[in-house]
Amino acid sequence: GATPNLRGKYRGDSTNTQALFSLSAADFVTLGWAHLAMTWDNGTADEVKLYCNGSLVATEGGLTHYEGTPDRVIIGKNAAADNTYHDGHIDNFALWTSVLTADEITAIYNARNPDFTAAFTDTAGNTYDSQGDLIQWLRMLENTGTSLADSSGNSNTATITNATWASDPAF
Fold first, then answer.
1. How far apart, in Å, are the Cα atoms of 53 and each of 4, 42, 171?
2. pLDDT tens per residue, range 108-167
């Protein structure tokens, strides 16, 4: 069969660029739950970085600088194709207006289930301090319904489509 992929996709100004990291079926079994993070630097670097379990795994640079305002985030679906959904579990999604540093991403991974609304330092000394730039945090604790509450304090509620609540949450 086809090799499963983890993708961080950037789409703006008619471009469709992605940072791609390939995993075999055996890798998915070994990883079990994986922490994924994507950064999009729309400033001087114009690049997307994809992290898996606190480590940088893919970078795509030289993107077309996006001048607009992002108006939506799609999680677990190929936005360009119908009926192509992630076949697995998703838990804990957060969105910031700033580009998190590699140390912040590592701190979040090491902490496992941190409070994104407060600064913290993990046991390895990596510090997270971007709480002021947090605009959405979906903890996915509802276990029922079609909406997700925003725990960032910004009231950016999300809508769930084509999903089923799991009886075995990640944390």
1. 17, 23, 15
2. 999 988 899 999 998 889 999 999 999 999 998 888 899 999 999 999 999 988 888 877
Q: Which residues, listed in sequence order, are joined to residue 39 by a DSSP beta bridge?
A: 49
**Long-range pairs for 60-69 at CB < 8 Å and ≥24 separation?**
60/8, 60/10, 60/17, 60/18, 60/19, 60/20, 63/10, 63/15, 63/17, 64/12, 64/13, 64/15, 64/17, 65/13, 66/10, 66/12, 66/13, 66/42, 67/13, 68/12, 68/13
Q: What is the pLDDT of residues 28-66, one digit of tens each?
A: 667 777 888 888 887 777 788 888 889 998 887 776 666
Check: pTM over 0.85? Answer yes or no: no
CA angle 134, 61, 109 (to 5 degrees): 40
